[in-house]
Amino acid sequence: MSHRDTNYSYRSVSPPTSPQISPPSSPFLSKSNDESSPQKPEQRLSANAKRQKYLRRLFKFRQMDFEYAFWQMIYLFVSPQKVYRNFQYRKNTKDQWARDDPAFLVILSFWLIISSLGFFIVLGLRWHEFIKFIIWMVFVDCIGVGLIIATILWFLTNRYMVIAPPRGQDVEWGYAFDVHLNAYFPLVMILHLFQLPFLNTVIIGDGFLSRFCGNSLWLIAIAYYIYITFLGYSALPFLKNTRTMLFPVTAVLVIYLLSLVLGWNFSGGLSYFYKYRVFVEP
């Protein structure tokens, strides 16, 4: 066979090349596009399987990305919008909005223990009261209340705010809980760690200055909690009327002004409440 015949035979058996199609540039892919593109098996997990995977990783510290969690905590103060842009990236790569890494919750629990140690010193608690205080702070104030708030907002957003989404697009419960954790971290830093050194010296007192300083911190902390919560749900492209989540700020401002006039000291009340619920008869 001649050299010319050999080349012709090779060309005749070569499969025709198909044009390469690049994925759409939009970060929000429809479900049909997701199904047609190759994905990892973990992207096909059900909600229950994702929850179980998250809980299993809760005690595997070597698998957690603590550096990334610290980055998120810093940017929740500096630029919280960047934090939620990374949630959008997770949706593209892992087909879920919620975190699959419990590192943020672990570090938040660590900060709660540190703040509990501060209250242990400032409030003059005993050691067995300190242990009880930590349990209340982590499992009731943070996780327990967070479960309630996340469930309520998850139900309301899916029921009243979804804009005829593509199939399978809804607010994940895990994402609603992550939004609570994001908003709760600055609140804890303001009301606990930042306020703590001035609690007995400046904030707890009967004067107007004490009331003004303490209640102003409460106003900032709660308003920031509401704002970060609003950012979390407004980052979802299939929700409407998310600005309504900012309405409670008005009520918080009214209560703040009333507290200054009527002599309510929220920080003093919080301290008495903390002492009361961990108090154990000798």
From TrEMBL:
<dbReference type="InterPro" id="IPR007881">
    <property type="entry name" value="UNC-50"/>
</dbReference>
<keyword id="KW-0472">Membrane</keyword>
<feature type="transmembrane region" description="Helical">
    <location>
        <begin position="104"/>
        <end position="126"/>
    </location>
</feature>
<keyword id="KW-1133">Transmembrane helix</keyword>
<feature type="transmembrane region" description="Helical">
    <location>
        <begin position="133"/>
        <end position="156"/>
    </location>
</feature>
<feature type="compositionally biased region" description="Pro residues">
    <location>
        <begin position="16"/>
        <end position="26"/>
    </location>
</feature>
<dbReference type="GO" id="GO:0000139">
    <property type="term" value="C:Golgi membrane"/>
</dbReference>
<keyword id="KW-0812">Transmembrane</keyword>
<feature type="transmembrane region" description="Helical">
    <location>
        <begin position="245"/>
        <end position="267"/>
    </location>
</feature>
<comment type="similarity">
    <text>Belongs to the unc-50 family.</text>
</comment>
<feature type="compositionally biased region" description="Polar residues">
    <location>
        <begin position="28"/>
        <end position="40"/>
    </location>
</feature>
<feature type="transmembrane region" description="Helical">
    <location>
        <begin position="217"/>
        <end position="239"/>
    </location>
</feature>
<feature type="transmembrane region" description="Helical">
    <location>
        <begin position="183"/>
        <end position="205"/>
    </location>
</feature>
<dbReference type="Pfam" id="PF05216">
    <property type="entry name" value="UNC-50"/>
</dbReference>
<protein>
    <recommendedName>
        <fullName>Protein unc-50 homolog</fullName>
    </recommendedName>
</protein>
<feature type="region of interest" description="Disordered">
    <location>
        <begin position="1"/>
        <end position="48"/>
    </location>
</feature>
